[in-house]
Design brief:
This protein is of the alpha+beta class. It contains nine helices and eight strands. A four-stranded antiparallel β-sheet has the order 1-8-3-6. A four-stranded antiparallel β-sheet has the order 2-7-4-5. A hairpin with a 6-residue loop joins strand 4 and strand 5.
Length: 200
């Protein structure tokens, strides 16, 4: 995606907010403060120990959120963010509380995001009822999806997790490298390959 195409996406996003009766002042502030960011494949957008100060909207490409164990440094994929799956992205353990995260957000392909500072979002939510309603709906949806995924991580076997991805998140199979899918399932890439063969 070119810079111009990304800017056009941003303007369309703002136009949609206008249709929801979001105040012109709010839209102008978002136009000034929300930035299109190009992220190269394998680049880490947020690293463990950093404070997640922006919320990101995935315009193109994809990311994984990986929890990094504080002692061992072992990484485990706990969420996927794609344009058509969980497009609103943040390290949840940091964004809402503004404390350092234990996670990383890593691009799995060349990607484009719209980054909006939390301070700007909070200001508009406090001043604009229509934007606040939109924001709460987006946040509630994201939290429900995040919680559902965490329950699957805790309760499901490796095969059940893989079957869940195939049935409910097929774009992950198409767009995310097997390494991260294996991490999510809690198995080696070799074992994931066996599961793929079992599923035909």
């Amino acid at each position: 995606m070119s810079q111009e195409s990304a800017k056009l996406f941003k303007e369309n996003y703002l136009t949609n907010l206008q249709a929801m009766q979001v105040m012109p002042e709010s839209i102008q502030l978002l136009r000034q403060k929300a930035k299109v960011v190009l992220v190269k494949s394998k680049h880490t957008l947020i690293m463990p120990g950093e404070i997640n100060k922006n919320v990101y909207l995935v315009i193109e490409g994809g990311f994984v959120c990986r929890y990094i164990h504080e002692t061992t440094g072992e990484a485990k994929t706990i969420n996927f963010y794609l344009q058509d799956l969980h497009p609103v992205m943040a390290c949840v353990d940091s964004y809402f509380t503004q404390v350092p995260t234990h996670c990383e957000l890593k691009a799995v392909t060349d990607s484009v995001v719209l980054a909006t500072p939390k301070m700007v979002m909070d200001q508009i939510v406090a001043e604009d009822l229509h934007f606040a309603n939109f924001h709460h709906q987006v946040v509630n949806t994201a939290m429900v999806e995040e919680n559902e995924l965490k329950m699957k991580l805790i309760a499901y076997s490796a095969k059940e997790k893989y079957d869940f991805i195939i049935e409910e998140m097929p774009s992950v199979i198409q767009k995310v490298p097997s390494k991260y899918i294996a991490e999510f399932c809690g198995i080696s890439p070799e074992w994931l390959s066996k599961l793929k063969k079992q599923n035909g």
